[in-house]
Amino acid sequence: MTPSAATPASPRRERVRRATIEEIKETARRQLAIEGAATLSLRGVAREMGLTASALYRYFPSRDDLLTDLVVDAFTSLADRLEVALDAAWEGSGGQLWVDVARAYRAWAIEHPSDYTLIFSTPVPGYEAPEDRTKPAMFRGVGVLLQVMTRCVAAGEMDPDRLEELLSPALRPQLEAWSASGEAPLPPGALSAALTCWATLHGLITLELFHHLPPMLDGGALFDQQMVVVLDRIGYIGPRPT
Amino acid sequence: MTPSAATPASPRRERVRRATIEEIKETARRQLAIEGAATLSLRGVAREMGLTASALYRYFPSRDDLLTDLVVDAFTSLADRLEVALDAAWEGSGGQLWVDVARAYRAWAIEHPSDYTLIFSTPVPGYEAPEDRTKPAMFRGVGVLLQVMTRCVAAGEMDPDRLEELLSPALRPQLEAWSASGEAPLPPGALSAALTCWATLHGLITLELFHHLPPMLDGGALFDQQMVVVLDRIGYIGPRPT
DNA sequence: CACTTAAGTTGACGGTGTTCACAATCTGCT
DNA sequence: AGCAGATTGTGAACACCGTCAACTTAAGTG
Q: Integer distance in angstroms from CA A56 to C1' C14?
């Protein structure tokens, strides 16, 4: 009844089924990239695959489910990229680690603008991503940022007084609650610092991506500088990254 | 031929025409607010107005032009709100001015989430806002932020050494070019600082608006704290805002 | 082989943006 | 007053969309 394979069925069937699903998603992704989320349509995907639109319903119960899959995939792709950057720069200072991860974040966003808008805004009408499916995927990416902060703290590169100083009384208990939830096992000050970093990172990237920055500004140079600046007053006291 | 009124025509005609246009935009805005940009459709607007869909084409050459009008209106509304905040807090310190304007910015975003996503992302498929029409409208809002920074500098509340220190060599000439263009008549360091503020502001708001922040965090408390932190980070040395 | 299950097609329904030919209305002019 | 012309609205049509139900075809299993 349901298109999802509850029973293993035959291995061969299952294999080709997965391949078809992957082809659908790939085609959809391509159409998504061609011109924003503009021209994405089930019928279009089916047409390009030489299928009828209704055939796709054997694989996805609705267009929104296909979209959700794309959202999850995009989050995963971003997280993968960040983790690669994290591993590659793990030996250096925490500050360098942050800058490298941030650059990877921006690079991914610029290479996959349609995916970025897909996951960080709602470019498709009538579609709201279901949190229960997308949130875990998103959190892998956020987790990398938290790991960077964790490393900074562990390496003694964060000024504890400064971290404490940045906390407003209203915010402290909330951050403690977040920390206690297990999602983000860091002291409140470090969490606050990480949020500052994330907001700046995300804000600058969306401004650049949607062409809200003056055109004479080179996004890369501005970005690099801003990432260093944000480190600085968050209480980072380690070696200056390049 | 063209729906736009090149000739003044009769004053009466012109008046009722403007009223109709306004009613169309209002209806569209309402539909937009009802559930995101999801359910916005020309036919829906026409239906609610007791008109045929094709009748709207007497007033807007296409759906995208209607959207562009909404975008411009939204930018204008935001700018109005910011200017009110600017005037109201003009007497206080630059830091207080910044926090008040930033709060107004967030308040507007939260009260008009659909408008915010409409102007700062691309929530409608196939639609890309034409820059020549939207950019001037957007710049009024950015201009307020720049005025805040101007005031901070004029009041001697910005540490000039710090501003200088924050500039990367790659970025300086670009910011100087921007400044020279007349759009943003501020020294490069101050421009950089203003961009930092804007990116943080914008980033945090989009994260909150799209529910990418952990739910136990109160957006308002986090926001206030972050706005103070960002001030600090960019070399603000005036009295601490509340 | 017969039987079950999955994959795909056909055709429809109601929705969308858009166009075009036509009718109704209002305005200005003589 | 009456006519000409512009303005505003309608109705039907076109091509597209997501979705569903009934049907046919193919594949795998006992």
A: 20
CA distance A194 to A182: 16
Give the contacts of B125 (CB within 8 A, at least 6 positions apart).
A36, A37, A38, A39, A40, A123, A124, A125
Q: Please report the beta strands in chain B, taking only residues with DSSP state E, as ranges in sequence order.
A: 35-37
Q: How confident is the model at residue A124 (pLDDT cuts 50, 70, 90)?
A: low
* CA B182 to centroid of chain Cα atoms: 20
Other CB atoms within 10 A of residue A54 CB? 10
B201 residue type, one letter = L
On whether the CB atoms of residues A226 and A196 are closer than 8 A, the answer is no
For B228, the token pair is 């103070």
Mean pLDDT across B98-103? 98
Which strand C bases fall within 7 angstroms of a protein CB?
A: 5-11, 15-21, 26-28
Q: Which candidate, A162, A165, A152, places its Cα nearest to that of A241?
A: A152
Indicate whether B25 pLDDT > 90. yes
Cα atoms found within 13 Å of the Cα of residue A202, Cβ hemisphere only: 27
**Inter-axis angle of helices B219-233 and A219-233, nearest 10:** 100
- As ranges, strand D nucleotides with an atom below 7 A of a protein CB are 6-12, 16-22, 27-29
Return the percent helix, strand and coil in chain B, to nearest 5.
70, 0, 30
pLDDT tens track for A62-86: 999 999 999 999 999 999 999 999 9
Q: Single out the residue of B24, B198, B23, B25 nearest to residue B120, CA to CA.
A: B198
What does B92-132 look like in DSSP terms, one character per residue?
A: S-HHHHHHHHHHHHHHHHHH-HHHHHHHHS--STT----HH
Structural contact between residues B139 and B183, judged by C-beta atoms closer than 8 angstroms? yes
- Within 10 Å of residue A147's Cβ, how many Cβ atoms? 18
**CA(B12)–C1'(D8) in Å?**
14
